[in-house]
Design goal:
This protein has strands at about 5-10, 25-30, 35-50, 55-60, 65-70, 75. It has about 80 residues and is mostly beta strands.
């Protein structure tokens, strides 16, 4: 069984400006539960009805995950 959060469409009052810092194609990493770092690229983003920004990430392993933006780190 897969959990799919209720998402809303992001909006911005300034045309051409993204509503969040993360955009498609941005390289990021996350810490896995086993303590290893997983690298990937942002493929999409949405905002939950409570305001939480969710990021859809395609990991380099080919797995697609969806996590809150607060737990994501940019690759520098």
């Amino acid at each position: 069984m897969s959990f799919r959060p209720q998402l809303t469409t992001p909006t911005s009052s300034d045309p051409g400006k993204t509503p969040y810092a993360f955009t498609a194609g941005t390289r990021v990493f996350v810490w896995a539960s086993n303590g290893k770092i997983r690298y990937g690229s942002i493929v999409g983003s949405s905002r939950l009805v409570d305001g939480t920004v969710m990021l859809e990430i395609m990991l380099d392993s080919g797995r697609r995950i969806c996590l809150p933006a607060a737990g994501i780190t940019l690759v520098q």
